[in-house]
Design brief:
The protein is α+β, with helices and mostly antiparallel strands. Helices cover about 30% and strands about 30% of the residues. Strands 1, 2, 3, 4, 5, 6, 7 and 8 form an eight-stranded antiparallel β-sheet that branches.
Length: about 160
């Protein structure tokens, strides 16, 4: 697990809500507190779609690409939000590629999700990495690979941060 404090909120928010930097993520859950508090469960309600449409829904969670516009509309305005929290999961097909590229010895089926939690408290944002497993494992290779991948991703995107 790695905690990173965002150095430039304006740049970060542009990357998060306007740009495509985080489009490889799914929204597991989100909370935004402005004049009201909005809570989002990222699980897709497949019952909402016709039976034929469910085949075209590859994920259990909504893509960040589909949700960031809604989040942007809830956050934008003259006043900064009081709080927000987004729990993002790296897309499953990318988890497999990342762990394979990192020569992870743990079977990929053991990894439930590579998680990035973004919390803003009114003063600044902290990004926290995490790994969710299907069962308890002692192997920390996925955590190490994920932590390294996130810092490389942020640097590549020009998102400034400091390690906490």
């Amino acid at each position: 697990m790695l905690a990173l404090k965002v150095s430039s909120m304006k740049s970060f928010m542009n990357h998060l809500l306007v740009g495509s930097a985080f489009d490889n993520f799914l929204l597991a859950e989100g909370t935004i507190s402005t004049a009201n508090t909005y809570t989002m469960d990222g699980h897709i309600n497949k019952e909402f779609y016709q039976r034929d449409d469910t085949a075209s829904l590859p994920y259990d969670f909504a893509t960040w690409t589909d949700m960031k516009g809604l989040c942007f509309n809830l956050i934008k305005g003259k006043r900064t939000p009081l709080y927000f929290k987004f729990v993002l999961h790296f897309k499953p097909e990318l988890v497999s590629k990342l762990l394979a590229a990192g020569n992870c010895s743990l079977p990929i089926e053991q990894v439930k999700a590579l998680v990035l939690t973004i919390k803003y408290d009114g003063n600044g944002a902290v990004l926290t990495t995490g790994t969710s497993f299907h069962t308890f494992v002692m192997n920390k290779e996925p955590d190490t690979i994920w932590d390294k991948a996130i810092t490389q991703f942020l640097s590549k995107e020009g998102i400034e941060y400091e390690v906490l």
